[in-house]
Design goal:
Two copies of one chain form a homodimer. The first copy, chain A, has 14 helices and ten strands. In chain A, the strands form two sheets. An eight-stranded parallel sheet of chain A has the order 1-8-7-6-5-4-3-2. A two-stranded antiparallel ribbon of chain A has the order 9-10. Chain A is an alpha/beta fold. Helices cover 42% and strands 14% of the residues of chain A. Chain A folds into two domains: 225 residues, Aldolase class I (TIM Barrel, Alpha-Beta Barrel); 67 residues, no CATH class. Chains A and B meet through helix 7, helix 8 and helix 14 of A and helix 7, helix 8 and helix 14 of B.
């Protein structure tokens, strides 16, 4: 049995990335019901909202699920208390130091994975004693590494230095890219963008449609001075681009950002002035489908592609 | 039999990328002798120098080999005349429009592949009637696409729209990444950086050593206004970075570049002031080895990794 499946008690080694404004209880439950691991994205939730989403997920699936917790916000410890109270079995932490909460979470019986984008932090994950590492490439929707290392380069590098179960992220939205990730040495994959464009995601329908329409070159990795994210190119992106070109300071950038622009874009559907975070793989997403169909076709394509790989 | 092997009459679907100052006759012949396809990099050669390299390659191997011809230089038509005179069987064109020379080369009995970095140019390749397409991701040493699409995203996209034999490039330097490229839908791989750090490449020994020492984040895609290339970070890179940050015009950039800086760096070994073009995969290259060992270990690792891919 695959070690990621065994670790989390799931059927397929497919993790749904926790994404602000897009991954609530409905998406997480759908992914877990379809045999993957659904994650509630806590980044855009107040603690009481997170609690509601956890309770609704538990009501909607009997399968394991988790919470993604970006370590960027003031309320992290309140979030953790909710997670422990509600007996969530799995937490994926990201955008911070894995040494901070891993042992505390594990003491509370929670399985912990942490998201990194370079070897240095992969080794910190080992030191922290995480159960799994997510290594995320430049092509991902965010939060990406400053080194811009892409998935095909990153995964063999990380594999070389860690034995911990390894999940690849960035550029994975179909069975071919999933198989590629496993070929690179990953034990499983984390899929973000493809699940944003699912029926069950809480992304605004117009955002889903924009993902379907996105082509090569329609995203760019931005905000490298603050927290790197990949943006779909709209008015908001142009504003950020202008500030970056003017070499604006961090405070000016943060001031500009600090207006709920991500919610405005991804959740409320303002396709011009909102912040739209998405991966490069959006260029290869052509439809909005139910989660069960997405997972089913990924696995079918994975198997078909595996059968036809030349032995050489 | 694999279609790339059949097309070029080679044992393994491994193409050695044609690289200025690094891929002369010795490298090309070594790759062809080891069962791959060696390419002489014409970009840094005067026509008479190219002729000498072709003749030496013919003397050093009985296997098929080719010439890589970046369509950037004034002497392209003289190069083509040399290639036809010397009966070179295979040409890889790059950095230009495939419609320009493909039919002329093919009329002269030459097999033609063209290097692209997006779907638009892949379709132009089909229109031009090329025999194979090389699709090159953001992580490659150059010349990269403006869209910054990475290999894991690019290959499934191109595979979806073209049936032409497809060669993946960018981030491929080991058996794992080779297998990943095939999983993505490629029929073969083009390998650049890994062969620069080979015994037989004409790169300066100090450049080879710098590749071995390179870590994550030590390269960056630069010169996007002119011809995008990925540079190892040294003084030359810092100068370019400064000009780009000052939003210097193309003429100022070209003036700065127009001093044989690539030769100075990669061939003559000035590790500070020379231009050092290399891929992200340099972070995963730990030694300088003979070409035969490089190819042997790639194939061994490919086979081992293929055997252990989970069926799911």
């Amino acid at each position: 049995m695959n070690n990621i499946c065994e670790l989390f008690g799931i059927q397929y080694p497919i993790i749904q990335g926790g994404m602000i404004w897009c991954s609530g209880w409905e998406l997480a439950a759908a992914v877990s019901n379809a045999g993957g691991l659904g994650l509630i994205g806590a980044g855009s939730m107040y603690p009481d909202v997170l609690r509601t989403h956890i309770q609704k997920t538990k009501a909607a699936t009997n399968n394991p699920f988790g919470v993604n917790l970006p370590l960027l916000y003031k309320q992290t410890e309140e979030h953790i208390q909710v997670i422990i109270d509600e007996k969530v079995p799995i937490v994926f932490t990201s955008a911070g130091n894995p040494l901070k909460y891993t042992s505390y979470l594990k003491k509370n019986g929670i399985k912990v994975a942490h998201v990194i984008a370079n070897t240095k932090f992969a080794l910190k994950c080992v030191e922290a004693g995480v159960d799994a590492i997510v290594a995320e490439g430049f092509e991902a929707g965010g939060h990406n590494g400053f080194e811009e290392t892409t998935t095909i380069t990153l995964i063999p590098l990380i594999r070389k230095v860690v034995e911990t179960p390894l999940i690849a992220a960035g550029g994975i939205g179909c069975g071919k890219s999933m198989l590629a990730a496993m070929a690179l040495g990953a034990d499983g994959v984390q899929v973000g963008s493809r699940f944003v464009a699912s029926k069950e995601s809480s992304a605004h329908p117009d955002f889903k449609q924009n993902i379907v329409e996105a082509k090569e070159g329609d995203t760019e990795l931005m905000l490298k001075k603050i927290v790197p994210v990949r943006l779909l190119k709209n008015n908001f992106y142009q504003e950020i681009k202008k500030l970056e070109n003017e070499r604006a300071g961090i405070s000016k950038m943060v001031e500009h950002l600090g207006k709920g622009r991500a919610k405005k874009g991804m959740f409320e559907g303002d396709m011009l002035e909102g912040e739209l975070e998405i991966g490069q793989v959006s260029a290869n997403i052509d439809n909005v489908k139910p989660v069960s169909e997405i997972i089913h076709s990924m696995i079918e394509e994975y198997r078909a592609q595996l059968r036809q790989l030349p032995k050489l």
